[in-house]
Amino acid sequence: MRTTGFFVIDSIFSKVATGLATLAMTTLPVAAQAQQAQEQMDQAQEAETSAASPFGIPSDVVMFEKHDPNIRTATAKVNGAIITGTDIDQRVALVLAASQNQDLSAEELQALRMQVLRNLIDETLQIQAAAAQDMTVNADEVNERYLGLAQQNFPERPAAMDEYLTKIGSSPAALKRQIEGEVAWSMLIQRNVSPFVNVSADEVNEIIKQLEESRGQFEYRLAEIYLSATPETAAATKRNAQQIMEQISKGANFQAFAKQYSESSTAAVGGDLGFVRLATLPNEMADVAKGLEVGQVVGPVQIPGGFVIMLLLDKRQILMADPRDASLSLKQISISFEPDVSQEEANAKVQKFAEAVSSIRGCGDAARAAGTVGASVVDNNSIRIRDLPEQLQSAMLQLQVGQATPPFGSLQDGVRVLLLCGRDDPEVAEKPDFKQIMDQIENERIGKRAQRYLRDLRNDAIIEYN
């Protein structure tokens, strides 16, 4: 479940009722009748305006004090718990490190700080709600998860995690606080949401029937960053989405931004929607998704309720074997370069290498051809096409046994080709079993209910800003 979102500041609207005394008249002058008619028209117009606005706010609002919500000290109290400027700074440093992009304008950095503040408010509410139900997060569990992350990122010396966080301007405490919030929220969902979600056997069987009817149609594995918007906030939300899109186009990590910014329940898994059929998506998303290539990012796309940035992670045909699951037997033939090699010398060596590869007559001839140019040969007898880099997958799908890819690589990493020696095509795909489908439906419903639960926590919170 996501930890991003928005906070709500309640506004108090008061009305002053003024009593008007009217005199009963048997006749009115013509001028008075005209005045009365005009007043009735004005009242009707006011009533129409009030109906268009849920709070009856007039269109010509006069502000008594200028207020820019983006110019505000990013500190707050959440039900008495203080979020400090240091908390904001250290969490911002985590986001920037995860996105691998430090080049933000002053406006973008301010927007990021405000988003981080909203995340910290939600996180604080989640920890408080868990504690109120006697579900205090165990410090040992937080430390264990932190150690797991350290071992994943610094396998040779996990203690380097502390040094790294300090170096980027964050701290171990900031990351542990985020872990604490995730654990607290998970416990709350398990107690207050999951037990009340049910899926019937008829629903699952209906999904299985639909899958059979859709056999052969494409389904798309999409990731999303969803930002909600109203007509009044649409322009500002679109600008925020465009800034996020710009950072992603510069190399920022999509999954990291989804976890930090997306208001969808998929935020916790980096925005991953899983495999979906276009018919299940809003029309605006479906129209865009069907034209995407795997790995392509697009957005912001306006959909009912807000804007979405989309990443196509994968595409496949329903209940059909995926050619990328074929198991290959490969030979990698490669050459390397001396550190001081000139570009001219390198080009000449690559040319000879390409000529040697083109002379290969089957996999049994690979060693001979490699020997003529001092290339090395490495065998791999069980590798799936989908496990190769995306740039190579399409090339491998087109090869016949005994053929090689074009040379690829660099002066630093060497130049190589992959020679196809065998291919075992996948069997016909099996449809998901009953339990898999039931779990998927349950998870979707849990995500939606968890969103409403977090919204209720926000609505009941007392939030004070400095």
Give a short overview.
The protein is an alpha+beta fold.
General description of the model:
45% of the residues lie in helices and 16% in strands. The two termini are 29 Å apart. Helix 2 crosses helix 3, helix 3 crosses helix 6 and helix 7 packs across helix 14. It is of the alpha+beta class and 466 residues long. Among the domains are: 120 residues, Orthogonal Bundle (Triger factor/SurA peptide-binding fold), CATH 1.10.4030; 101 residues, Chitinase A, domain 3, CATH 3.10.50; 102 residues, Chitinase A, domain 3 (Roll), CATH 3.10.50. The chain is globular. A four-stranded antiparallel beta sheet has the order 4-3-6-5. It has a four-stranded antiparallel beta sheet with strand order 8-7-10-9. The N terminus is likely disordered.
